[in-house]
Design goal:
Length: about 500
């Protein structure tokens, strides 16, 4: 590369400042190199690509499946969720180096796949039997490989949270529909997340290990909250036990239905979930809802009551029922409500194993999982703009993979430096870092901004401690130019 510089403009506020364009290898996404090193050590995308059937002729393949997946996932991880963003990132030198599954200093000058080629990737993932499942299984693989890399074996205990969330769409996407609960046109996917010891953000050493989405399924926008749950739980359980020896479940009120609880009971899995109120339950609770005489405590209070076994008409088995009464001031006015609020928990834990207060504390930790769903929407911001349902599901799964990869690196950083790092802060401080790529002695040197060096050093030291046996990638030595596009071959033949 030369040293060409062109004047762009001179700011009016300070005549001593001049803005110029340059042909130097400048990047604003240097952190993608960090993501690639983490992904390479886990061997994640190579493992997914091995299970993807590629219908293309081998002699006409310019971009391999793992490279196409890597390009799209890394773009999403950096907050570039729209498919059109890949055309801009394809010229970024750090992005080029990170995406190519080839070595040598020439990778910085090789253009990446364009937006139409990325569209063909979605076509491959949805057009061949089993390809979409390979990407879906990659969610659990990302968490599993991180666990093995960090400790060499499955963790003893983990908790699975299952929930749904809306993805708003604008257009005529197949399967999207108006949802009265969310009051917008949406898809309504199911997601399952695993957290070690039930706490996504515990400060205990090692508790951030093994956190992430392990299963997901896109659903139509108008389906009931619990639609397809039995099959979803069955697949989730298989994934969860590849990561943890013992698994328990937390369920929101929409999923504490007979078929789901029966499925978990048949698998001998422990669960706790919130139960929707009804007149029968409120009658059972009435005698236990009271306010003690005298002035209530300034911060209010709450208490739990064991209500014994309860069986709804649609349940095959009776389950333990717990009443939770909350009498706390309104956070905006500071005034107590006219009457205490209450809700119900249902569980198959016995009292000797976990008392009511312990179960309540455990259940409330699912709030952190719901925060993670919010983080996913804010930091990745998946856009499902394809008309086909399967194409949109493929895009969603790739976005969840991007979030998992970011979560792995973010959690490692939290273990290294302490404190809480929301995803936006992690992406802005660690991944979106300025740098300059230069060639030196037949090698590429990436010079990053000085402000990022302390965080990078701490994170790299954590990643380098992963077990090397988990590296599955088979990267050739030296750079081999990829074949040109098929139409160019035909022109040359003629």
């Amino acid at each position: 590369m030369g040293e060409h510089q062109g004047n762009l403009f001179e700011p009016q506020f300070n005549r001593s400042v001049k803005v110029q364009s340059t042909d130097h290898r400048i990047t604003s996404h240097a952190g993608v190199i960090m993501l690639r090193d983490a992904e390479h050590r886990l061997g994640l995308f190579d493992a997914i690509a091995k299970d993807v059937r590629d219908p293309r002729r081998e002699d006409r393949i310019r971009y391999r499946i793992d490279e196409l997946i890597r390009e799209r996932v890394f773009a999403m991880a950096l907050g570039c969720s729209a498919q059109d963003d890949v055309d801009r990132l394809a010229h970024d030198p750090a992005f080029r180096v990170a995406v190519w599954n080839r070595t040598g200093d020439a990778v910085a000058d090789e253009r990446l796949a364009s937006q139409p080629t990325q569209s063909r990737l979605i076509g491959i993932l949805t057009g061949q039997a089993g390809n979409l499942e390979a990407v879906r299984n990659g969610l659990a693989q990302s968490v599993q490989r991180h666990v093995i890399a960090s400790g060499g074996r499955r963790v003893k205990q983990a908790t699975v949270d299952i929930d749904s969330f809306p993805i708003e769409v604008h257009g005529k996407q197949h399967g999207a529909g108006y949802n009265g609960y969310y009051k917008k046109t949406v898809y309504h996917p199911l997601v399952a997340s695993l957290s070690v010891r039930g706490d996504y953000d515990s400060t205990h050493q090692g508790n951030r290990l093994g956190n992430g989405f392990i299963h997901a399924a896109l659903r139509q926008g108008q389906v009931h909250t619990a639609d397809g749950m039995k099959r979803f739980v069955d697949k989730t359980d298989d994934h969860a036990h590849s990561i943890a020896q013992h698994v328990d479940y937390r369920l929101d009120a929409g999923y504490t239905i007979g078929s789901v609880m029966d499925e978990l009971n048949s698998k001998n899995r422990r669960f706790v979930g919130r139960l929707k109120s009804n007149t029968k339950l409120d009658a059972l609770a009435a005698e236990h809802i009271h306010r003690a005489p005298g002035r209530p405590p300034q911060n209010g209070y709450e208490y739990t009551v064991e209500l014994g076994n309860y069986q709804a008409d649609s349940w095959k088995h009776a389950q333990r029922l717990i009443l939770v009464v909350v009498d706390q001031p309104d956070p905006t006015t500071g005034q107590l409500n006219l009457m205490p609020r209450w809700f119900f928990l249902v569980t198959n834990w016995d009292e000797e194993s976990r008392d009511a207060d312990t179960l309540l504390a455990h259940y409330r930790k699912r709030g952190t999982f719901e925060d993670r769903l919010g983080e996913f929407n804010e930091s990745i911001g998946v856009h499902l703009s394809s008309q086909g349902f399967k194409a949109n599901e493929a895009t969603m799964l790739l976005a969840l993979l991007a979030f998992n990869l970011n979560t792995i690196c973010r959690n490692e950083l939290e273990e290294a430096v302490g404190g809480g790092w929301d995803m936006r802060r992690f992406v802005g401080s660690v991944l979106k870092v300025g740098g300059r790529m230069v060639k030196h002695s037949r090698r590429l040197v990436l010079r990053i901004a000085e402000s990022a060096e302390p965080l990078w050093s701490r994170l790299i030291s954590r990643i380098e401690n992963w077990e090397s046996s988990t590296v599955q990638a088979n990267v050739p030595c030296g750079f081999t130019p990829p074949p040109r596009h098929a139409h160019l071959r035909e022109v040359l033949r003629q």
